[in-house]
Amino acid sequence: MPVRKSLLPWKIFAYSIMVLFTILAITPLLWLLTSSFKPHAEIVRNPLGLPRTWYMENFRRAWTQGSLGVYFMNSVFYSIIATSITTLFALGSGYTFAKFNYRISKFFFALYTLGLLITVHSVIVPLFVLETYTGIGNTRLGVIIPYIAFGLPFAVYLATGYLKGIPDSLEEAALIDGATYMQIFRYIIVPVATPIIATMFIYTFLSNWNEFVLVLTLTSKTAIRSLPVGINSFAGGMSRDYGLQFSALVIGTIPMILFYLIFHEYLERGFAAGISKE
Amino acid sequence: MHNRFRKRYSYWLLTAPGLVVFLLVIMFPVIYSVSLSFTEWSGYGTPKFVGMKNYIDILSDSIFLHGLRNNLLIVFISVFGQIPLGFIFAYILHRRMVGGGRFFQTMIFLPITISSVVVALLWNQIFSASGLFTAFMRIITEDPRYVIGMFEQKNLAIVPILFVLLWMHTGTYMVIYLANLQKISPSIIEAAQIDGASEGQTLRRIILPSMFPVIATTAIFAISGSLKAFDLIYAMTGGGPAHFSEVIAIYMYVNTFKYYKYGFGSAASIIIILLSVGLILILQFFTRRIERRNG
Predict the structure, then answer these.
(1) Which of A225, A260, B221, B246 could bond B113 through an S-S bridge, CB–CB 3.0 to 4.6 Å?
(2) Which residue among B10, B130, B273 sits closest to A122, beta carbon to beta carbon?
(3) Which spans in B23-61 are helix H?
(4) Is residue A180 part of a domain?
(5) Which structural domain range is residue A36 located in?
(6) A89 — contact with chain B (CB < 8 Å)?
């Protein structure tokens, strides 16, 4: 809707605040990127300028010496596996909650809603103890199971809301034709729910990729730790070489920025569904 | 009969996997955590029941109280910083007051996609002696030896962190409000403006009242998010120096996993939940009063 011409002061205000915050948002990221191509000494001497030569050595060393390659692959593994399972489980629950008309569904749905308010911190101690007792502490399985669980409340909320809005007629026709509920799930619900599956998957993927506390507490081996924890121990503590630190941060940032630029529509829809986690 | 069995069987087949994982990993540990909070336990042997001792110790610990103060400042900056700013950006974009809205929206939202740990370490660099902020301040103040001193002051150590939180999360609120502004029918706004309502009146009388429930909901999540703030501060300062930038979640984490006080740590985590619930109830009390007044 166009704004009327009398609104010049509003426009001036609007432009200045937008431009200011945009500069504030991207300058640190541009500075990070240019600094990552400078050797340590140049970062200290000349923090503002562009790199004199585009120095790639930082990245090579961070990737191998800092084990960022290992962390990166672990992050990919955890995010893909846990996100896929969360999405599948949430879609199953969403289907039954929205379409089966069982009274107990209301109770389960309320439990999941409660789960939205519960933070990782309030379960981390018992979880740590439980995982140690059952022997899955410090294993990949011990990371994936909590990831699945913490992704569920929001995903179930999204899936149920979406599937409630779909007319019952398709499903009823299939039932009359003798289809089983599992066939309906597979051949009717899944195709119809594609947009919400994309939103669920991408939103959950982002939170799993960025997750920190669970991996920090539940694992202690380099071989199974994820990128945020690896970057924290490498760039935060061990390395006094700023060039290495910056390249490690860039390695942690670039995949998510690309991911966002490709999938921004779905991601924003996930956030805009009314609730954000942080 | 056969059909009803099949329906019930399918229900559980589809619902149970998620439910089992959720109950085992989230619901059961929460209950476990409550009972642990009344005990003294270092992870070995049996927990020793100590009643309310952990809670009393925590509430009379000056480190905890300073952490609580910092948490409340984070709540403050979320509710009175991120939410209004996010709303202003959404409003500007929705009313098309600037050209290239899509570009601005993408850029302002960008920080939220980056992991808190990366954001923390990036801003540590920005504030460091060879960082962007320092270089900038040296130009402005014409003092070639300027360095930020806030981190070493007990009362101010949290301020740069508050700024980074604002930087990081404002985009989230913008996107939420933008999506909800788009649900308001344009014809209502047009009609008001044909009747001679100014931009300010349209905002006050039509848009703000209809956005009020959404703003109240986001405030709830801002509060619970602020009280569990951990990743960013842990990676930025670890709560230091000398607990100056401590928050409750870090207090809980350090006591549990550095000092092996599992019961004590559980009590701290229960306090986080109780505080969230308490603040949310206060917020809802005021929201209801305002809604009633708006009639």
Answers:
(1) A260
(2) B273
(3) 28-36, 53-59
(4) yes
(5) 5-45
(6) yes
